[in-house]
Structure formats: C-alpha cells, structure tokens
UniProtKB/TrEMBL annotation, chain A:
<protein>
    <submittedName>
        <fullName>Cytochrome c</fullName>
    </submittedName>
</protein>
<dbReference type="Pfam" id="PF01322">
    <property type="entry name" value="Cytochrom_C_2"/>
</dbReference>
<dbReference type="InterPro" id="IPR010980">
    <property type="entry name" value="Cyt_c/b562"/>
</dbReference>
<keyword id="KW-0349">Heme</keyword>
<keyword id="KW-0732">Signal</keyword>
<keyword id="KW-0408">Iron</keyword>
<keyword id="KW-0479">Metal-binding</keyword>
<keyword id="KW-0813">Transport</keyword>
<keyword id="KW-0249">Electron transport</keyword>
UniProtKB/TrEMBL annotation, chain B:
<dbReference type="InterPro" id="IPR051459">
    <property type="entry name" value="Cytochrome_c-type_DH"/>
</dbReference>
<protein>
    <submittedName>
        <fullName>Cytochrome c</fullName>
    </submittedName>
</protein>
<dbReference type="Pfam" id="PF00034">
    <property type="entry name" value="Cytochrom_C"/>
</dbReference>
<keyword id="KW-0472">Membrane</keyword>
<feature type="domain" description="Cytochrome c">
    <location>
        <begin position="45"/>
        <end position="151"/>
    </location>
</feature>
<keyword id="KW-0732">Signal</keyword>
<dbReference type="InterPro" id="IPR036909">
    <property type="entry name" value="Cyt_c-like_dom_sf"/>
</dbReference>
<dbReference type="InterPro" id="IPR009056">
    <property type="entry name" value="Cyt_c-like_dom"/>
</dbReference>
<keyword id="KW-0408">Iron</keyword>
C-alpha cells in the first residue's frame, strides 16, 4: 500500500518536472517572438514615415531579431510540442528545415543591419528581412 | 427538395429512381436551371484587370506547382487535405495538352461559374466555384486571357485521393443544385462604390468565406455563420473569426486590415502564417485602393460570435 503510494508519488513528481520543463521553453520562445513583434511595429512605423527615422533605432531592430536567432533553435525540446503553444509539428518532423529557416532569418538580419544607412536602405532591408516572418509562420506555426 | 449531403444524395437516388437522379445531376440540367447569359468583353481583353483577378482570386495558392517560388507556374499538384480525402488541383497553365491551353473562353467561364468541365463532368467544390460563380463574364474573359500569357508548364498531376461515395462526381449535381445559386452580385445602391468593389473582391474573387466560416455536414459554408471562423479544414488549429465582433477583429481599424492584406502583420505585429500566408502573397499584389475597399467591406460585416474557440 505504502509502496504503491510512494511509487505513485515519484511518478507525480516526475510528471510535474516534465511539465515544468515544457512550460519554460514555450514561454521563453514566445517571449522572444513578442519582443520581435514590438520591434517590428516600431520599425514599420519608421518605414512608413509615421515615426521619425533614427538610424541607431533602425539597426537595433535587427539586433532584436539576432537575439532570437541565437537562442531559438534550442527552445524546442521534444516535450514542448503540446500545451499553450502554436508551434507546428513540422518543427520536430523536419528539424533540418526548421534550423535552415532560422539560419536564413539570421543571415538576412545581419545583411539588413549592414546595409541600413538611411531611410531608403532601411525600407528595403526591413521589407526583405520580414519576409522570413511569413514564410516561417506559414510552415512552422499553427493557428 | 432540400438536399443536405452527398450521402443523402445517394439515398435520394433510391427514392427518386435512377432516371430522375440521372436527369437532375446532369451538368446540362444545372446549366438550364441556373446558367446565366452575360458575355466576355468584345475586343481586346484587359490583361491588367486579368492579373488583378488572378491575384484577388488566389489561383496561385492552389494551382502553382509546389516546392518552387514562381507564382505563375500553374502546373498544379499541391495536396489539399479535406475531410473527404485529398484533392490535387490540376495543371491550369496554357500548356495545350496538360493545361488549359486548348480551352475556349466559354469553356473557361463554364468551369469557373458552373463547375463543369469541357467534357461535361462536375468539378468538386474544393475548386471554389461557389465563390467564382459571382465573377462577371467580362472579368473572367480578362482572367483567361491573362492566364494564357503565363508560361506553359507541362505535366499532369495525380488523381484525387477520395473515399467512396465522394469518388462519384455525378452526385455533385445534387450538391450544386442545393448550394450553387448561379446568381451574380448585383451592385448594392445603399453603399458607395468602394464598398461594392470590396464586396466583389471578397465575395466573388477572394473566397475568404471558404476558409473563414464553419461548414455544414455537406461540406458547404454555413450561411448563418459566414466569416465567423471555424475549425481548420487541414487539421489541427482554427481559422479566426473575421467579423467585427469582439471575438473576431472588432478591435481592428480599417488601416489594420489594409496592413494585414499588404504585409501580413496583425496589429500586435504577429505575422499571419498557415494558409493565410499564401493569401497575403496574393493580396500584397493588389492596389492600395483594392485593399482599402476590401477592408471597408469587412468592417461592414455583421458581427458574429466566433464559431470556433480562439486558439489560446
């Protein structure tokens, strides 16, 4: 009797740990994406001329993207497939393609940062790098 | 007679007797009952207008050859999953043997509005002719002419992979009598020209309702909950409510909708994914005026509560 209870309880701690592990990376990856969303909103306002253009601020948008790309791939452990997440099954089914999408986003963000010198170059660079948002969400995110 | 599903259709076959079923489901019956008689533009087609309709109608999303980036290579072959099985949209490039290069404009109009092939077979409504039936013959003539300027792409696609009884195209005749009304969109004088343009783009071309509405048992859009969102027909997840309700996009301004149709960004600067990413690649090609018109129309829809729970 006691043994069964104990066994059950060991089981329940393991389960709690497993759940805790899965929640952490989900929250972290969503936090990175939310930060990108905010940076993209500010950048879009500048690109459209609704906010004054500021070179340092424009380049920092790309830095925000690069923070994501440096951490993103490690935030999808196998136990984070389900729960409060919209991450799509393809991330795990085709990990090479998911990593390639992150690598492309990173390369484009670096190139965008390097080429941004004024409003005109920023507009082009921003337009190009944000293509990655749609294309990755198309394949790797669920609604 | 109200026909609710292809299955009831099969039952009706027994009741009506094979002869009546045969008559009712004949593509010619559909044309006689519902076909309408407007004609394409006389003289040279307007290719720019054809291109606009191609983008508004989203032909590339289904007919572009998968696995490559050129939206104008219409070789087909993408797998479209549905509860009835998998559909593979055919080659509609101007290739004379594998595509529609040998078609006449009249055959094209009939396919788009009546869902009937040149050799007289019914098309499955996975091809959204329930929407395209509202396009004018002038616009369809321009669209056909535009498609014929695109590269001929050889190659045929594999057959649809459907479960019985959906393999029987003839049964679609009953489905069409129940769900395809063949009515054009008459301009609504109570609204301005921009709204009417927006309605035409959304209702006759954009087939937004085909994804953003729940469907009934027969797989047709549930008219009472049009645009209220629903389960994702391709599997897990949902398609959002796009009526101006608080459970839909009631908090979005007109500019927010225009931005989404142009860049794919929502007001939170999330970027729409899934099947909507391809829709945005189409609407991004439209003029600002057309995107404004679509937004004006969407803002005027009747607010409805979400038909599917919003995914977290």
């Amino acid at each position: 009797m006691l043994k069964t209870l104990l066994a059950a309880c060991v089981g329940c701690t393991i389960a709690t740990v497993a759940v805790a592990q899965a929640v952490q990376p989900i929250a972290e990856r969503q936090g990175l994406m939310k930060a990108q969303g905010r940076a993209t909103r500010d950048a879009n306002a500048m690109a459209k001329g609704e906010a004054p253009f500021d070179l340092a601020k424009a380049q920092s948008v790309f830095d925000t993207y690069l923070v994501t790309t440096s951490k993103f791939a490690s935030l999808f452990p196998a136990d984070s497939k389900t729960g409060e997440t919209k991450a799509g099954p393809k991330i795990w089914e085709d990990q090479a393609a998911f990593r390639a999408a992150i690598a492309k986003f990173e390369a484009d963000a670096k190139a965008a940062k390097a080429s941004t010198t004024d409003l005109a170059t920023f507009r082009t660079a921003f337009g190009q790098v944000t293509q990655n948002c749609n294309s990755c969400h198309e394949t790797f995110r669920l609604k | 007679m109200r026909v609710r599903s292809w299955l009831t259709g099969a039952a009706a076959l027994v009741v009506l007797g094979a002869a009546a079923f045969w008559a009712l489901t004949a593509p010619a019956t559909f044309t006689a009952l519902r076909g309408r008689g407007d004609a394409p533009r006389a003289g040279a087609p307007d290719l720019d207008n054809g291109r606009t309709l191609f983008n508004a109608g989203g032909c590339s999303s289904c007919h572009a050859r998968p696995g490559q980036d050129d939206r104008t290579l219409l070789g087909g072959g993408l797998e479209l999953k549905s509860p009835f099985g998998s559909f593979y949209p055919p080659n509609i490039s101007p290739d004379p043997t594998d595509g529609i290069g040998g078609w006449t404009v009249a055959q094209f109009i009939r396919a788009m509005r009546e869902g009937v092939s040149p050799d007289g077979r019914h098309y499955y409504p996975a091809f959204p002719y329930t929407t395209y039936q509202r396009l004018t013959a002038a616009d369809l003539g321009d669209l056909f002419a535009y498609i014929r300027t695109l590269p001929a792409t050889p190659g045929q696609v594999r057959a649809h992979d459907l479960a019985f009884p959906f393999t029987v195209r003839r049964g679609l005749g009953l489905w069409k009598l129940a769900f395809l009304d063949g009515k054009p969109l008459a301009p609504d004088a109570a609204h301005d020209a921009e709204w009417n343009r927006g309605r035409y783009l959304v209702e006759a071309a954009g087939h937004c309702a085909e994804c953003h509405s729940p469907r009934n048992l027969a797989g047709a859009v549930d008219a009472s909950r049009r645009y209220a969102g629903g389960p994702n027909p391709e599997g897990r997840g949902t398609v959002p409510n796009i009526t101006p309700d608080e459970s839909g996009i009631g908090s979005w301004s007109r500019d927010d909708i225009v931005e989404l149709l142009k860049t794919g960004f929502t007001p939170e600067f999330d970027s729409v994914g899934g099947s909507m990413a391809a829709v945005v690649r189409n609407t991004a090609q439209l003029s600002d005026g057309d995107r404004e018109a679509m937004a004006a129309y969407l803002k005027s829809l009747k607010p409805l509560p979400s038909a599917a729970p919003k995914a977290n």
